[in-house]
Automatic annotation (TrEMBL):
One Pfam family from the record: Glyco_hydro_31_2nd
Native source organism of the sequence: Anaerosalibacter bizertensis
GO biological process annotation, one example: carbohydrate metabolic process
Superkingdom of the source species: Bacteria
GO molecular function: carbohydrate binding; hydrolase activity, hydrolyzing O-glycosyl compounds
Residue ranges annotated for the Glycoside hydrolase family 31 TIM barrel domain, each copy included: 165-524
The entry's keywords: Glycosidase, Hydrolase
Glycoside hydrolase family 31 N-terminal domain residues: 45-121
TM stretches of this protein: none
Keyword Zinc: no
Protein name per its UniProtKB record: DUF5110 domain-containing protein
Domain DUF5110 span(s) in chain numbering: 644-703
Amino acid sequence: MKVYKIGDNILKYRFGTPFPTDAVVKAGEGIEKDSIDYFQIEEKEELKLLYKMAPKDIVFGLGENQRGINKRGGKYISFCSDDPNHTPGKRSLYGAHNFIIIDGMENFGVFIDHPGKVVFDIGFNHKDYLEITIEDKNFDLYIIEGNSPREIVSSFLNIIGEGYVPPKWAFGYQQSRWSYPDAEKVEEIADKFIENNIPCDAIYLDIDYMEDYKNFTVSEERFPNFKEFVEKMKDKGFRLIPIIDAGVKIEDGYEIYEEGVEKGYFCVNSEGEPFVAAVWPGRVHFPDFLNRESRLWFGKKYGKLIDCGIEGFWNDMNEPAIFYTNRGIEQAIEEAKKAEGKNLNIDSFFGLKDEFRDISNNIEDYKSFYHNIEGKLVNHYDVHNLYGYNMTRSADEGFKNIAPNKRFLLISRSSYIGMHRHSGIWTGDNHSWWEHILLNVKMMPSLNMCGFLYSGADTGGFSDDANGELAVRWTQFSIFTPLFRNHSAKGTRHQEPFAFDEESNSIMKEAIKLRYGLIPYIYSEYMKAIINKDIYFAPISFEYNDEYSRRVEDQLLVGDSLMISPIYEENSRGRYIWLPEDMLLWKAKDYSERKYEIVEKGHRYLDIDIDEIPIFIRKNKVLVLGKHANTVDDIDNEELVVIAFAEDKASYTYYDDDGRSLDYRDGIYSKIIIEIEKREDDYQINVENHGNKDIKRLKLEIVDREGKVTKKTINI
Ligand code: MIG
């Protein structure tokens, strides 16, 4: 075991010869040390790290996973999986995010940098023990110390590198559905947004836009003159976001298939032939995204669609999902033949059934193909969790090749730590279930801790049918998620904001408009989090360390100023809330009607009507609010409403930039610093403008401890 010091409070313990994942961007200095802090090690066939948790310890992290913000009580398996049934017992979803934080008697973070299977048993096997099992013994273990979870997260974000920033328009509302079958339908959807005056910035193109599910092709029949169509839609205010799948169709004459075979860019089987699996298009090869040349080659292909005016993509099926292989089908048929005519009992019958179920995403298939890493073949199974990450990296590298300083929208389904430098994620195939609103709420801070700030769930739920109330309540939560996309599966009920009864439609519309009003705050907080290596969504215990705050699972901090308490139960018209301090409550219906009330610290039951979104402004904090427009680009930035809950003073730093380039990385952005201090009967207000050329006026609404509102306008 070698030990390295990475910065002041981070040690890396190297076991064996780990596969380089490029998750961490900071190198360290070798030091002398022969024992590991915190953990006991058990080495058998696998390696186990053991830690005894104190009764009140909380374990945060693990990104995209089931269960609570506090991960205690569960077992989680990092092995990227295409599993569309996110029921509570599931242990693997699409991502592998091996970072946790222990917060309690001792405070430290742990990152297992290993691209194969890792099991986190967090008080499941034995309620007091954290057991981390690493199947093969080559990995890096990072231990990060800090005084608080926030400090630990920040140190972690610092070593995994600066997060992805989408173009500003990607903070607008986005509409998706599998599938809008043709250009006509896409335009019809766009026109409905226009007719109903509902803001929307993007419409997604799911697999049906392609010709026979071939990546980087567009069906001439369903989307004729694609380039003109993209332009026409952009003129109407909508960007189109096509999907790209991992598998490349095997078909003579298909350029990408032929080039890939010729140049050896695909993953291979044990004979060195391109590995064959089947997904949407039938049989496919998988590009070898772990190989640098293949990655660059595939990345450039995005240019075909970028040339048509496309500015955003979603990368799907990149766990990679496998529907079947010949091996799987043959094995199942063989078992079926053996069973034919037999009197099957409980074991043999269900065994046979499972044979067929297990044709998809089978471990044996993952073990039967290889990546070419600098001339050496590496079995896919050992590096499985890096595949989606590197597909998405390939896209990002492609974009940088084509337009080095332009931001593109990019989200991926599968991911690994480090991919957050290249893109955001959506959380995959959830259901139109109330439980999945709550899961969405809990997942957001966990994802943030792992670097994935630009994230969100399929609002309204992917599978199953949403009713109006579910779509409303989900939308009311999603207005706070940086990625705000409504998506649903083929065959399910439509769930666009105009798909339901009049009342639900109108509430969704107002919520979306409110989202646009919140964009100045959301964008400012998002960007400050990126630049300062901080998070956007946090559990409330990150700021309040009292007994109750440590237990709250269904309220979140959004940026530095806000707390939210989403409704996630059907027929509910209110809920219990824990207030760790007095806060200013605005039950928002739309952004122009603002009534405030002070809610005092304590356990409170709050009435929340179907059209209300409770927004709490923390003590001495500030919310900035703009206006809506039908697209982000059209938002009028001349005036900002500044809502302050000033017990004695409040301050805010409002960040903005051009929203489309990467210049912010060179410090090219503007800031307005607002400082409010309470005097006897009035407020002293200080505003410093560092380079913001859009905003002309600040309309302050300062609320004091008694709820008295003082309004002032300041020209800047
Ligand atoms: O097997 O492209 O998660 O968002 O609509 C399903 C069709 C494949 C899964 C994605 C989903 C998308 C769907 N895809």
